[in-house]
Amino acid sequence: MAKPAAESGEERLIARYFRPLALHPAALGLIDDAAVLTPPDGCDLVLTVDAIVGGVHFFADDPPGAIARKALRVNLSDLAAKGAKPSGFLLALALPDGVAASWLKAFAKGLGADAEAYGCPLLGGDTVKTPGPIMVSITALGSLPQGSMVKRTGAKPGDRVVVTGSIGDAALGLKLRRAGKAAGRWKLDAKMRDYLADRYLLPQPRNAMAEPLRKYASAAMDVSDGLAGDLDKLCRASGVSAEIDVAHIPLSQAARTALMAEPALIETIVTGGDDYEIVCAIPASNVAAFRMASAVAGVAVTEIGRISEREGGVRFVGADGRLLSLKNRSYSHF
Amino acid sequence: MAKPAAESGEERLIARYFRPLALHPAALGLIDDAAVLTPPDGCDLVLTVDAIVGGVHFFADDPPGAIARKALRVNLSDLAAKGAKPSGFLLALALPDGVAASWLKAFAKGLGADAEAYGCPLLGGDTVKTPGPIMVSITALGSLPQGSMVKRTGAKPGDRVVVTGSIGDAALGLKLRRAGKAAGRWKLDAKMRDYLADRYLLPQPRNAMAEPLRKYASAAMDVSDGLAGDLDKLCRASGVSAEIDVAHIPLSQAARTALMAEPALIETIVTGGDDYEIVCAIPASNVAAFRMASAVAGVAVTEIGRISEREGGVRFVGADGRLLSLKNRSYSHF
User: Fold this and answer.
1) I need a labelling partner for B251 at 20 to 30 A (CA). Which of A144, A159, B48, B172 fits?
2) Which long-range contacts (CB under 8 A, 24 or more apart) does B321-329 make?
3) Residue B284 pLDDT more than 60?
């Protein structure tokens, strides 16, 4: 008589590394074809997908936990910018031959830690083999009261342009990662170097801002491909333009130090990607309340310019009153 | 004065190939960070993700439209097996350098045709570059009345095991694709060869079965990794076993012809993947009604065995009463 059929390698992999993360009842313990979610009454669901690829969005030797967390956080950042509360996520993971058990263990541990920290449980997934590099594709779901999603399209002339946190750190961190010697030229101390490297490695999505954005913003998006290019997108979607005071763009101490040493870095700061901050348009009459709500949420926000109707795209105006000329305004894969 | 900023290559790619598919209002024309979906009242959402990779799940020289359709259909098949009506999907597409515009055009055309045919619109996506092969990861959403999802866990002793369509065609089609000479040995005519090749290239998900399954099945899943292994999974999830009459497994004329010529192919038929049929457990008292509803839905269904409680996994019993011995019961990536 036949023995009970053994689980396949794929089932064992899922059971060992990912089932412990599937604590939400909608995940059905990852033993079914699909997850099943009962949407909250009166809510819209916000859906976003972002994929990261080894050698493109992260380095193959990045810590596996950081890769997992980055993959989740870039999606959480989209939910934050739209004003949505995370509901959960689905994971498609492509693995080359020979990925070590220790890699998978650390990947799952990082993923689980963030799923818990951000209240965004694993709902389902697919694990496949690839002859290429590791690829992590995550689809995240969020919810918000019906009709309240903060879109890219609502910016109006006169609105103030506001950003969270600081801009350019991740792009500088990536430059350092590629050519560590720059740290000397930029006069960075070890702490500043580590800070910039970490800002590239591990985005800090602004999920605490979801409610303030829903209440006070007329438009918002997350800054993933560079402030200049992303603000261009927001302006195009809203049919407006914007004027930005370069001197007001919030910089970390590390970025400020590097910029002092090498003024041409302003282009990297303004057009480099991976900030995962939020840029939004706030009607002038809402700015004070938005500032207050952001302070309560524990997130620094800075007014950097204003939306205008005249044509001409987004203009970055330097302290000397001259327009900044930018070669590549945005990170683009194609 | 600055010119209006040009769209990036990535934006142009999305606008040219994928925006025409984003007809559903939830997609917001693909110009926002996220899609926003108002779930129907009283419904659960069913969520599934499946990724396909060039050189693993399809051949690099498969027609791009067929690759797109396969990527969507393997997800539609999961929704069908769960009894859900498609709501829409999100696409993560990783492209190597040098993918031609004609490839993308044909890919988008195939995707759009199936999105329309199955009522499953594109809601959002992400397009990234990869140094590896093309990878298409799709997350599909479906809806059904609250609490009505057909799970893997509900099979009960005495239930009949039923499958849709025919089993093994795609696995034979893949064998032919890898070694076309087998067609002669298997005594297949050109029509049979084409039929099997097409069953591998383009799954036929059984979405017409969603309602009959919801009404009459105690458990169901789609057959993607081979009948033996997938039925093993269903039985493990339900805490039961099953006995299958090998002679009752429905075969196409092409598969029957090949099997007559080479009886050892029974292993390929029973354990090969990519059927995208549905295997389900139907309480004996529901079988007649389920047959009727399936006929109305235009899908052939065949009773192939029954669920039992005694231990021993799934047993495949040949016409001679002897148990089939299977080396690898399931396709597994790991």
Assistant:
1) B48
2) B323/A1, B323/A2, B324/B246, B324/B266, B324/B267, B324/B270, B326/B228, B326/B267, B326/B270, B326/B271, B327/B267, B327/B271, B328/B271, B329/A5, B329/A8, B329/B226, B329/B228, B329/B229, B329/B232, B329/B271
3) yes
Q: What are the tens digits of pLDDT across the range A59-96?
A: 999 999 999 999 999 999 999 999 999 999 999 999 99
Structure tokens at A58: 């992260």
| Token digits of residue B134 | 């093309």
Sign of CA dihedral B71, A52, A225, A65: positive
Which chain A residues are closer than 8 Å to B331 by Cβ?
8
Q: Does B116 touch chain A (CB under 8 A)?
A: no
Q: pLDDT class for A180, splitting at 50, 70, 90?
A: confident
Give the pair of three-digit tokens for residue A56: 């493109």
CA-based nearest residue in chain A for residue B54: A130
Sign of CA dihedral A89, A90, A95, A99: positive
Q: Do A49 and B330 touch (CB under 8 A)?
A: no
Distance from B238 to chain A by nearest Cα, in Å? 10
- The predicted pLDDT at position A284 comes to 98
> Quick check: B15 contacting A, CB < 8 Å?
no
Note the ipTM here: 0.94
Model-level pTM?
A: 0.94
Closest Cα partner for A277 from A222, A230, A331, A225? A222
Chain A, residues 94-113, CB within 8 A of chain B, namely 94-95
CB A129 within 8 A of CB B129: no
**pLDDT tier, A4 (very low <50, low <70, confident <90, very high otherwise):** very low
At residue A175, what is the residue type?
K
What pLDDT, on a 0 to 100 scale, did the predictor assign at position B150?
A: 98
Cα B9 to Cα A330: distance, rounded to the nearest angstrom: 10
Contact criterion met (CB below 8 Å) for A188 and A260: no
Residue type at B164? Answer: T
Number of other CB atoms surrounding residue A124 within 10 Å: 29
pLDDT at A310: 74
- What pairing do the DSSP bridges indicate for beta strands A241-245 and A314-317? parallel
pLDDT at position B5 is 55
CA dihedral sign of residues B285, B289, B292, B293 = negative
pLDDT of residue B6: 63
Residue B212 has pLDDT above 90, yes or no: yes
Sorted by where each starts, the structural domains of chain A and their CATH numbers stand as 40-145 (3.30.1330.10), 160-317 (3.90.650.10)
